[in-house]
Amino acid sequence: MTEHVALVSGASQGLGHALARALTQQGWRVVLDGRNATRLAAVRAELPSAIVVAGDVTDPAHRATLAGMVAGLGSLDLYVANASELGPSPLPPLAKMPIDAFRAVYETNVVAPLALLQLVLPLLRASGGTVVAVSSDAAVEAYPGWGGYGSSKAALDQLTAVLAVEEPGVRWYAVDPGDMRTEMHQRAFPGEDISDRPLPETVVPAFLRLLAERPSSGRYRAADLPATAS
Question: What DSSP designation does 214 have?
């Protein structure tokens, strides 16, 4: 049986870590990255079969290293564009958002996913693989303070939709996981108790169902895909 290979960005914590764990448990070989080398080392200790590369997806050299690691495995079945940048905390209104910070959000959330995708797309074409872009309800709803992050996720959604038309041999999903109890979400609500939000592990079954059933390319909400894939 051919081993499935996945590339997951932003896998040192939160949803990326939870997805990497679940994929590994299903027998996937995973290539992971993250900006926090210490946390990524802990993930590597937990998932010994994982290939981990510490670095920032906005760095072209880091992206080239990731693509090289994947190429060395000879195939790629899944790319999860999960690495994200929230922007300043507390979240500022757009009228006061520093442009350098706005630009940094787009570099991480829009430019980097496309740049890395361009490097690994030949392997995804060859496998008839899947791309999952982690989106947000802020991409479609207008929340005060979320203009930078939300508009970047809207742009990522549109990139995913256009790529689905341009590259029909690959499945393309923009997935809104919903609110989660993550460090990034806590930064969005500094000083507030977010313990009522579900842990990232609770939405992983929705992602696994997408991978198992492979419906038409499009935008999906994890809340609408609750069943665990078999």
Answer: -
CB neighbours of residue 188 within 10 Å: 20
CATH number at residue 56: 3.40.50.720
User: For the chain, what is the domain count?
Assistant: 1
173 is a catalytic site residue: no
Decide if 226 is inside a domain: no
Task: List the catalytic residue out of 106, 149, 173, 220.
Answer: 149
CA 152-156-161 angle, to 5 degrees, is 145
User: pLDDT 10s per residue in the chain (230 long)?
Assistant: 468 999 999 999 899 999 999 999 999 999 999 999 999 999 999 999 999 999 999 999 999 999 999 999 999 999 999 999 999 999 999 999 999 999 999 999 999 999 999 999 999 999 999 999 999 999 999 999 999 999 999 999 999 999 999 999 999 999 999 776 666 666 666 777 768 777 888 899 999 999 999 999 999 999 898 654 44
pTM for this model (two decimals) = 0.93
